[in-house]
Automatic annotation (TrEMBL):
Listed GO MF terms: unfolded protein binding
Protein name: SYO1-like TPR repeats domain-containing protein
Gene3D superfamilies attached to this UniProt entry: Leucine-rich Repeat Variant
Gene Ontology annotations of biological process type: protein import into nucleus; ribosomal large subunit biogenesis
Residues covered by region (Disordered): 295-325
Family: Belongs to the nuclear import and ribosome assembly adapter family.
Domain of life: Eukaryota
Organism (species): Pygocentrus nattereri (Red-bellied piranha)
Every SYO1-like TPR repeats domain range: 395-649
Name of the gene this protein is made from: HEATR3
One Pfam family recorded for the sequence: TPR_SYO1
Source organism phylogeny: Eukaryota, Metazoa, Chordata, Craniata, Vertebrata
Amino acid sequence: MGKTKNTRFKRPQFTPAGLSVGAVKDAVEEEAEAEESPAVDLLEKLQSPCADIREYACASISRVVQQSQNIPGFLQRDAVRRLGPLLLDSSLAVRETATGALRNLSACGGPNVCEDMVRQDVLTPLTALLKECSLGFQVNSSPVKKEEKHTVDDVANEAVNLLWNLWYAPLFYFQIHMLPMLDANRVLTKCFFCIYVCAAHCLHTVTEENPELTGTVSEAVLAALENVLLSTQSSMEHALLRILAAGSVWNLKGCFSSTRQADALMAVVTTLAHCLSLDAGAMLPELWQAQATRLSNSTTEPASACKDKQPAGGAMEEEEEMEEGDVERNRLELREAIALLTAQQTSLEIIVNMCCSDDPSDDEWEEMSSSDESEMFADCPDGNNSMLSPLCLSAELHTTLLNHSIPQQKADFPSRVALEICNKDPAWRCLIKKMQRVQCRALTCLHNILSVMDPECLGGAEGLQVVAQHLSSLVFGSEDVMKDEEFLEAVTSAIRSLLQILASKNIPQCMSPQQLMSMCEAATQCDLVSVRVNALAILGITGSTLAKEKGSVDTLQLIGNALLNVASKDSNLVVCGEALDALFDVFADGEEAERAAQNISLFSALKALQPVFKAKIRKEGRGKYGPDQLCVLDNIRINLRRFIGYLDTLQKK
């Protein structure tokens, strides 16, 4: 028990010729593969003087690499360096298919293949291609043939999707290739927006918690970001660009001088607030109606003839995002709708990060024990960096965020009218998931705000009661919501933070213990560990509050039995630890708690559980859990021993 068998390595067998048996087999297999592999023939065709043959070879590679077992054969034969120059081929069709081949190679190969592609300098021809596409759209004011325009659009679309896939590339290349794309005011006047939005996405992503990059950002980049923030174009695509710039400014706030920092952060908050003040539930039906009117008035493109183009490969992480990336570019209103929801989701994510602790261990142990939550946030720094912490934002910034973008406004379920439209139009169906994601991000945002802001900033007891009623209506309004894991994770986190504040301030809660227990019973069956942990913390907070009230023995017994059941049966040590920690909170003090503990034989139950929990930590701990998690689990183990001693003392009274 507690030990694992050491791994043994076998020495390779050798043939009389001095080669290992494996090497001989590999050589034979490699010769056979060279004859059978399509890579050899297709890569040779890339050098053909005939554009049609080059296009055929690229399209074939794009198809073949979708089967992952074929990828090593192409990589071993230098496919990336051979395809790279074709991104700037004289034929637009070859450019499109070559970019599509690299896009599928990166998407189907995963992060390791992406890094290898960057090492082989694929970003140099890709950046040149993106610049040519944007330049072509700017200078080519004369009408073009429909077929040619469609081809140029497709080249750019493939290039942007390839760039998305290469987000995992080393940061050095992004400094060289991506930062200059936001290094000039011309960004604001480009009509080909997908390239610049993609560049802004990349900049926003790579500047997050990245001191290597932030230390080398030029003054021109900071000025360009400020110009984007102050732009006034009304389209949703421009709004998305402003939000991405706002996120980058927040990430790079330490690069601004003390005199510019306050103004820059105020511009960030104002931009976020304006975006979240937009009513997506009302705007989506308006956009759909505008599209229907435009298409019905068009003689060349009736609505019934519009079909979505199929994606070239899995560039995005999720199916609906793949659909968004490849939607026809003449669906202007749908593009606006996607940009609106993406901007609002990103805005909420930025606010979530603004309210986060800088402790790097947060990601490893998101489910800290409820008794330790008050220690998660540090004091504010002094001096010129006073604007860097969310806890130190001025009252004016607090007011702007709360008045204009209070997350509970976005936490409502998506508009019924908008949902009906999206269900009715297949092209718009991808927006349903986006609307639901905005709701979940709003709930997560509310959770973080509740965790770090003074209750008085949230409206005091009355404001917190309003939030509680709102969350109650979301959770208990429909049984279907308890089946959505993403929603459950977000809403249980928000309720947990809210109950913690209500309990600390002795503010009555509008959700009854029976309602909370019903919700927690469903949540503890969820596969997500974070949802189960939140449910147990909610039970702990509810029980510790009830322990101070007369006549609560029966309810405390129900809570105690539920927590004991999870602590003894859940397969995850983090969940077991949270259940034990909740038990400590519920039965720590009070006559009602003592009576309930005796009625459910809590002492004997924990006495029997103690050696099992200790053995689990010893056996599973180091293999499955991080150092911070193990530290918390070890503290719970020690507290379990002490709590059993406390219960033993009560029994001997």
